[in-house]
Amino acid sequence: MIAPRPIPGTRWRWTLLSPALACVPAQALAHASRTPTPDDIWSVWTLSPLPAVALLVVSWLYARGIGVIWRAGGRGRGIHRWQAGCFAAGMLALAIAILSPLDTLGDALLAAHMTQHMLFLVVAPPLLVLGAPLAPLLLALPRGWRVRLVRGWRRSGPVQPIWHALNHPALAWGIAALVLWGWHVPWAYEAAIRYPFVHDIEHAMFLGSSLLFWWTVIQPVGRRRKQTYGTSLVLLFTTALQGSALGVLMTFSSILWYPVYDGRTAPWHVTAIQDQHIAGAVMWVPGGIVYLLGILLVLGTWLGQDERQSAHSLAATGQQKGVEQWVGS
After folding, report:
1. What is the pTM of this model?
2. Which of 80, 135, 209, 319 could bridge 179 with an S-S bond, Cβ 3.0-4.6 Å?
3. What does the alpha-carbon distance between residue 250 and residue 222 come to, in Å, rounded to a whole number?
């Protein structure tokens, strides 16, 4: 197994991490000895069979489920076309993050790795959630499988309470915050750069925690009470502040956070500290824009619901006055 280069002040952390890494074959852990350069970047596609097959299967199941829904109710009914488009865009974002040269480029440039993180954190998850995937994915399965799955869920015992607890806004927010800050601690981040096994765990945690967060924020919109819209706005605003704060710290820091990049950025004509500043800007600006769009979406839905309720109340009041006038005459 390739021994990691110790980082000043973090030797004890590598000592804690090494027993877990020792349980995994060295071939699965060791990164390639040479990082990509501008001359060979388009030849380093990460065409791993498992994630590629997983993306294809999920996309096929969603498309099949959409077909079932639209054949029953008409095209665009049940699941709107824009929702199907959002899901497709989310799957494309995952494909770019996992399979494209961006994955390997993250070994050479922190900015590329941060771009990959943004795809996992603020691009793919909200798009997938807006696609309302549960119904299409469930209807794509054979009827017998669906029945057994629903029955199993109803008889799942402690699984349902755990799922409902994870959907609590405070817990979903806390998990997302812990994952975001935890993986950007230098020793954890460098472990992910050095070992593909840890790298995969990092990305799985980014995607899973972000899907949970955006599900809690977006999916129930339109079916919640007014105070829950306010909760969603608070979640989005405070999460945006966290991401912006981390990005700002990285952008304006004069200290190299991740020494593993020292010497790797030269072929790209930037220094490691310049690369770090660019990476911070990537987290700060595009991430902030996505959260702002989420805030506007929730706020617009909230105001639209108020307008519909006001119009319904006015119509009901007018109808009642008409009845009273008719009875009085």
Report:
1. 0.78
2. 209
3. 37
Q: Which two tokens stand for residue 96?
A: 């770019």
What's the rounded Cα separation, in Å, for the pair 244 and 170? 20
CB 218 within 8 A of CB 291: no
| Count of domains for the chain | 1
Amino acid found at 259: P
Q: Is residue 327 part of a domain?
A: no
Residue 175 covered by a domain: yes
Condensed to tens digits (0 to 9), the pLDDT of residues 9-66 reads: 444 443 344 444 444 433 333 344 457 788 877 878 877 788 889 999 999 999 999 9
Boundaries of domain holding 120: 45-147+166-316
d(CA 102, CA 3): 25
- Its sign, for the CA torsion 18, 22, 23, 25, is positive
pLDDT value of residue 309: 53
Instruction: Calculate the alpha carbon distances from 308 to 176, 286, 313 in Å.
Output: 34, 33, 9
Alpha carbon 304 to its chain centroid, in Å, reads 27
Residue 14 lies in a domain: no
* Tokens coding 136: 């299409």
Measured between alpha carbons, how far is 173 from 178 in angstroms, rounded to an integer?
A: 9
Position 197 in a domain: yes
